[in-house]
Structure formats: structure tokens, C-alpha cells
Write a structure and sequence with these properties.
Blueprint: H1 3-9, H2 22-30, H3 40-64, H4 71-77, E1 81-85, E2 89-91, E3 94-96, E4 98-101, E5 106-110, H5 111-120, H6 125-146, E6 154-160, E7 163-169, H7 171-192
Parallel strand pairs: 1-5
Antiparallel strand pairs: 2-3, 4-5, 6-7
Helix pairs in contact: 2-3, 2-7, 3-7, 5-6, 6-7
The structure holds zinc ion (ZN).
Zinc ion binds at residues 11-12, 135, 139, 175, 178.
Length: 193
Amino acid sequence: MSEAQQAARRNMPDYTLPFPGFDLAGKELSYDYCYGKIPPEDRSRIVKMAWDRGTAAAADIFKKYDGEGDFFIIAGRSGLSCEEVDKDYVMGNFRYFSDYLSGRKRIRLYIRSIALWAEQNKLDELTARNLILSHEYYHFLECTVLGLTSRLYQVPMLIAGPLKIGRTGIRALSEIGAHAFAHTYHNLRREGA
Ligand SMILES: [Zn+2]
């Protein structure tokens, strides 16, 4: 994966809600730069497809790790390292909370960014880090076992009159899957508690 793609992956939006639910997933799709190329009649279907993939993955991991609530433990057992970077990472109009470096099996958490997000959402910092980590863990699953959710649906790269050139996936679908994963895992924990 190129540096540009890696950079593009650092794209968890600055939501005011701690766990975007299904209602917000459609909005996430509208942020995608390919949104205009997705026929309107396909939009809700692909949002649901991505959401369902995240939900199913959460149920699998919950079972596999026996309801473990600490994603630092799950990450460690999965061979992933987590680096906590003491930084509020803001670039342009975005605040970045974390990223996943697929080639290096490493997740970086920007703990000052996360601390601000925690404060806004009245979460304690450890809970917030754990939630962000669960989001990134889904990207790790995509890269290692699930396949990229973004590739479940493709649009032409370029449309020029009658010509359609190339194919590209929809990156927002990976984000929707990751939100579904974090959201569902949290709910499963809460139900089990
Ligand atoms: Zn993400």
C-alpha cells in the first residue's frame, strides 16, 4: 500500500458521538470522494453490506477472545503492536486519532487527540483509547483475513462521456465496517456485563 493510501486511511471523522451507529453510516458514505459515481439506488444497499461485515467480524472476535474487553490484549495476541504517540494530530480540517500501518503490523494512537475526543464525549481516556483501537483493529482484520471492505463495491475511476476508465473501490465502506465493528463489539460487551 502506498504512503498516499496509508495517509488516506487515517480518516476517522471528528464525530461528536463516540460510536457512530448505522444512521451515521450513510453520512460517512457521502464523505467519500467517489460518492457522486455511486448510483443513488445502490447507496443504502452498500452501506448495509459494509455495516453487516463489521457486525459479523465483531461477533467472531467477541467469541474468539471470549468477550475480552481490552483491545490492547486482543491486539497483542494478534501480533499487532500499539504505539501511543504523545501528540494532537491535526492536519487541514481533520483531527487524526490513530492509524494502522499494515506493512508493519502496527497501530499508532495519537493520545492527545484521543484525550480531547474523550473529553467531548465524556469518556475516560482508557475507554476512548480502547474504542479507537477497536476501530483500527477492524482495518487490521481487513488487511489480514477479511479482505478490504472498500473493494466490495467498485466504480469507474474516470467517467469521460461514454467512456468508463479503470475501477476503484469505495474507501468509506472500510470506515463504515470499522464503525460497525467498534459499535457492535461495545454493545456485545455491555450486554454481556
Ligand atoms: Zn478507520
